[in-house]
Amino acid sequence: MTRRWSIACAALLALAAPIPARAQDDPHAAHHALPGSEPVKSRSLYQIPGTWTDEAGHAFELASLRGHRVLLVLFYGSCDSVCPIIVRDVKKVDAMLPAADRGQTRFALVTIDPGVDTPEHLLAYAKKNQLDLDRWHLLNGSAEQVRVLANVLGFQYRPNGNGQYSHTIRITVLDREGVVVDHYD
User: Fold this and answer.
1) Is the whole-model pTM more than 0.85?
2) SS3 string of 84-98?
């Protein structure tokens, strides 16, 4: 089994696994707590302030994903190396989900290159990659918003010239309250 399929299968298993009902039952709680956080609600990524812009140019709150399991990926649309592979692998995870789980799962692709990945560019990217925009959200935010989210997720990135970035390769799984369940690097 290739490494990419291992990631896809692990993400699928994480999505299919029951989510602990209480914070003290969550084995990942101590590892993924936001600074100064306490119970589950305060560890939620949905507590991060700021409004994003989606691929249609509409305001988008991360908290609107509440109630769904989420696979979240930081990427950039002009990447010519690993980002297309990650998106393809996440699409494979989506395709492998049982119908009942598929309806309860959302996908968020957050650009690390907000100056280039405008909503129009993100919409073109979604169409090119045949992403179901009822469940897939491509998000653009300010450079500061992206840095905050990346820091919380332990995602590192930096421009390396000619429009490309060096960055962590990571798929993050969120539970229905926006708490990080796991990362797949």
Assistant:
1) no
2) HHHHHHHHHHHHHCC
